[in-house]
Amino acid sequence: MSMRTMMSKTRADLPAAATTGCGVARFEHRPVPPDLLEHILEAGCQTQSAWNLRPWQFIVVRSEVKRGQVLSHCVESGPAGTAPVLIVGIANPRAWKQAPERLAELTRHGRLAAGSHAAHLGRIHRQWSVGDAARVLAIAQTHGALQQICASAASHALCAYWVNEFDAAALARALYVPDSLVIVGVLALGFCDQPATLPSFSLSRTIFSEAYGLPWGPPGEPEEVEGSEETNDSLTDWNG
User: Fold this and answer.
1) What pLDDT, on a 0 to 100 scale, did the predictor assign at position 226?
2) How many structural domains does the chain have?
3) Which of 88, 96, 200, 228 is exposed most, by the fewest CB atoms within 10 A?
């Protein structure tokens, strides 16, 4: 069986939501089973995080009244208004201060050599303590965890919808989120009742092969590009 045939078969075996980017115009009214929801949330919590810092927390909103309250602080709720579950992702810029405990966990699980804590603590301090780095890194990693929730939901034939714009301060007050934390995103989750058509995209404009500007091609053995005069000419032609 060729690689292309294997990839086509794998794609065909995936739930529709996993191959359409979870595009949803309306959610079904039926609730997400609690055990399934917990499994999806666990996937988000297990997102890889440098030094095991895990600077994220989530608020799960399922009651109709509370969902309405959350969405009232969103500029345009869109399909989220029909979703049975809202997940609010929260970043903790102070998570890096828990580094000693997190590193100890890694050591207990054999993922970090004993006696290396001082060196790692120094690196964490240099990365997270400068300027607004802690806030930026915490937001970025929390966003990654929310994306992991999207991927896990899609693998179980659920759809997710990002609420792109909201009043963070008002939402924080409504959910009693401390001032030291940052609301990163609101994610609607549920079974799709009506799919949405998403914009098409081009791999050739987004993904490059071996070096920036070289067009992505069919799977195969990568070619050596470093120091190649032909490669430099291709890059010039590709970039215009």
Assistant:
1) 53
2) 2
3) 200
Q: What is the predicted pLDDT for the residue at 220?
A: 61
Going from the C-alpha of 212 to that of each of 163, 177, 202, 231, 238, the distances in angstroms are: 32, 42, 15, 11, 10
Tokens at residue 197, please? 């058509």
Q: How long a stretch of residues is the chain?
A: 240
pLDDT at 10 over 50: no
Query: Residue 189: inside a domain, yes or no?
Result: yes
pTM, full prediction: 0.80
Tokens for 83?
A: 């979703």
Q: How far apart are CA 108 and CA 119, in angstroms?
A: 17
Domain that holds residue 118: 14-200
